[in-house]
Structures are given as structure tokens and as C-alpha cells.
Amino acid sequence: xxxxxxxxxxxxxxxxxxxxxxxxxxxxxxxxxxxxxxxxxxxxxxxxxxxxxxxxxxxxxxxxxxxxxxxxxxxxxxxxxxxxxxxxxxxxxxxxxxxxxxxxxxxxxxxxxxxxxxxxxxxxxxxxxxxxxxxxxxxxxxxxxxxxxxxxxxxxxxxxxxxxxxxxxxxxxxxxxxxxxxxxxxxxxxxxxxxxxxxxxxxxxxxxxxxxxxxxxxxxxxxxxxxxxxxxxxxxxxxxxxxxxxxxxxxxxxxxxxxx
Amino acid sequence: xxxxxxxxxxxxxxxxxxxxxxxxxxxxxxxxxxxxxxxxxxxxxxxxxxxxxxxxxxxxxxxxxxxxxxxxxxxxxxxxxxxxxxxxxxxxxxxxxxxxxxxxxxxxxxxxxxxxxxxxxxxxxxxxxxxxxxxxxxxxxxxxxxxxxxxxxxxxxxxxxxxxxxxxxxxxxxxxxxxxxxxxxxxxxxxxxxxxxxxxxx
Lengths: 260, 202
Hints:
Order of helices and strands of chain B: EHEHEHHEHEEEEEEEEEH
CATH topology of chain B: Rossmann fold
Distance between the termini of chain A: 22 Å
Oligomer: heterodimer
Largest interface: A-B, 34 and 35 residues
Structural class of chain A: alpha/beta
Strand content of chain A: 25-35%
């Protein structure tokens, strides 16, 4: 049986892991410094993380160069699946990250601006390499709208429709990030996660809002997510990956328990 | 020396680093000449079955690799590198595989199943004495990323099975030639132990 995955997410700013307090606030300087990405990756690897996501929140030329270095160093020491997102705009950008040791690349605003990028990436590297990340915000009782540029720009697209289209274009996985819930620690948006997960035939990773262990169990069980992405609950030592998995197993969620 | 076949497919760096981590002397090999000095071959593979087959052929490596397998020299195929050991694939009906194992590579078709299978799933060993499984715990989890899986005609070559919608041959071996559908280089301790066993068998 395929297990549900627990994935720590590292937001990297100029080579250091940081954590924004809420969506889009990173640029406003509201960042908490967490530490060296490679050291954190090694820690989560040892704790039995199922995958790791690195997100370049600078996405400047210098930021990207330091991200390549971070991925290379991590891939030399952590023998687990690595995903890189942030600032990937072309097939060449994808190639650079995959060559550095990433297994998947995650695209968001660039996929919205150029949907064919999904197809070109999937044709070149296989759909399993192309993750489409979606930032969704509830705008009406029954409607979630897709936002681009770190949650700042409304696109007019419906989140479920965009997820469906991304799949048809060749995406191998969807990361669904709730703008309302991100960084609040008040829980995932279960409803939109479930709607997207039921609408597509590819795995859906829930992101944004993990504060308590119950939140993770809820989005996996009731939101029908295939994996959960979380940052803060791990970075500040509140819980280890092992703690999270033990809790999920007790709640009847199939997880991979490792020795620790 | 372990020849890691470099034919322009995907993430060869991770396989290389993982083998080195387990003490192997790894060399990236993309020409038939370089194969001569090798003691063992690792054939990775990511992406499309047909693309992989064509890229191996265009480098003149197809026949030398086929000879290598027929001579029963140590060989490990990973992911599409495993699928290529079979006759054909539904993914690319126009390209044939090595045909070392008989059978076709098929797509997951269980209704409602998410494809590709991305994530950690269990190995059920059919032959616990297999060299690659030495020292592993029972039913360990390994990392899979794939939409297709081989269906061997000869059940006796299957060394592990995994269930995702249906039960499939997640690993097969005959003599010194083996293949695995999962990614040992991405399967943390269990994957490294499998590579260690392969390196030790060379």
C-alpha cells in the first residue's frame, strides 16, 4: 500500500532557510531565520522525512546560484527525493536543478504565464519531474481563485479547473497551497484540497496552515491529500518528522515509520 | 569499476553519489570502449521508454549491453533501466527492449488510481535469498516514481512484488542480471543497503 508522505519544506533566502509569518510577507522583511538548508535537510532525512522541498524565495540570479549549490550539497548527503521551486521559468532552469540533484521541479507563476512550459518540461524530463504549485484563495462560498506572484495577483482562474488543466498539460503532481491558511497555523483548507484531489488523477500535496498534528491528519483523511507539506512545525523544533508520523499512524493514516 | 551508463537520461548524479557512498569506484560510461574496463554495469533511466532505448542505441551501447547481460555479468537496471530489460512497453510500441526478460511493460489501469505512483511503497520479497535483499528488514518501504510496470511471463524471475492498485513485479533477477522498478538512490537507508549489496557482489 502506498503511504501518505510527510514533506518538510525549506524556504531558502540567499542560501539560508527562513520562514515568512504569512503569505507574501517575506518580501516585507517579516522573516525568521531558521538556519543552514543542508544541515536542516540532513536532520529531516535522519528523522525519516519522505521527501524534501526547497523553495527559493529570493529567485534572483544570486539566489538561484546559491540554490544550485544547496541542492548539490544536499544531494550528496541525503539519498531521498528532492524538489526545487521558486524562480523556475524555462526548461533550461529545470534542467539545471535536475542536474544539480533535484528529482522534481515545481512551477507556479511561470506555469500560469506560459502553460506550455508544463508540457515542454514533461516531454523533456517526464511528467514525474513537473510539479505544478497552485496558490488558491477562497473568494466566494463555492469558489477558490488562483493567485500568482506569491499570492499577490489574482488570475481569474478557478483552482479546480486550473489543476485539471495542469494535469492535461503534463503535470505529475499538484501542490495546493491555501493563501488563507498559509502561515496561520490554523489548519489546512480541507474543502479545496478535497475538491482538487477528487478532480485530478495525479497526487495532490496539501500545503499551508499546519499548526497542530490534527491538522495534518485531517487534510490527509478528509482532504484526501496524498502528502502534506509543512515548514514551521518542524523548523522550530515543535515536532520531529517521527513525532508527526507516529501521530498519523495512531490516527489510522498509512505512513512509513522509520527506526527513530 | 562500476560503469554507470550515461546516455542523457535524467538524474544520473544521484545514482553516482549513492554508489560512491557505498564505496564503489563509479565511472560514467557513454561509449562501448569504456565498457571494456568495467566489472559491473548500472543502467539508470528516467522518462520515456522509447527515448531511453533510442538514446542508448544512438551511442552504440545497445548491442554491447545485450552481450553483457547474455554473458551473465553483474548488471543492475533502475526504473526505466529495469523496464528496458523486457520485450516491449505500452509507452512506446515502436521501440523494443532488450528482451532479457520476456514480457511487456504495462500502464497502471486501476480505475480511480493516481498515476504516476509517486511515493513510498512496500517490497514483498519472493526470494529472501536474493543477493540484493541481504540484511534488509521484512517488507521495507522504497521510493517509486512510475506510470508503467513490467509483467514478466516467467514468474520465477520475480524477486519482489509491490501492490499499487494491482500487484506487480517491482524487481526481477536472473543470474547476475537484476532490475528494480523503484529508486534505491532515493530510498534512504534501505536503498543504500541494496546498492551496498550490489557493490559487494561485484
